[in-house]
Amino acid sequence: MHVVYPVVVSALLFSIGVYGVLARRNAILVLMSVELMLNAVNLNLVAFDVWLRDRLHGGQVLTLFVIVIAAAEVGLGLAIVLAVFRTRRTVDVDRLRALAEVVRTSDSERPDGEGAS
């Protein structure tokens, strides 16, 4: 098999992943799109490793590292999404622009002691 076929498939997968990151509003779908992009990179690494006939199989070793990093990213990303969902009750990325919690205090509770008296 020629190297062009896996490279074209990889480019299509990566393009779909980029579209998913840019167009989706749900944080879980954004994480899935990032995983799709990482898998496209893995496909490229293995295809070029086979095409170049690397005796040390550096592309495949690097692919294993990318898979480990991707697994850690999914675990951490889902933990963050769960924590945000527990506090905000949404995983909509557009609503999560400001990460600071807004705490409203009444005038009598102001820290400078100047109440509305």
Overview of the structural elements:
By secondary structure, the protein is mostly helical. Helix 1 packs antiparallel against helix 2 and helix 2 runs antiparallel to helix 3.
Alpha-carbon distance between the termini? 82 Å
Q: Give the averaged pLDDT, no decimals.
A: 86
- Overall geometry comes to elongated
Total DSSP helices: 3
How would you spell out the order of helices and strands?
HHH
Radius of gyration: 22 Å
Please give the share of residues in helix. Answer: 55-70%
Relative strand content: under 5%
> Which secondary-structure class do the elements indicate?
mainly alpha
Low-confidence stretches: none
Biggest beta-sheet profile? none
Secondary structure topology:
Blueprint: H1 4-23, H2 27-52, H3 58-88
Helix pairs in contact: 1-2, 2-3
Summarize the structure.
The chain is mainly alpha-helical. It contains three helices and no strands.
Key traits:
single chain; 117 residues; mainly alpha; elongated
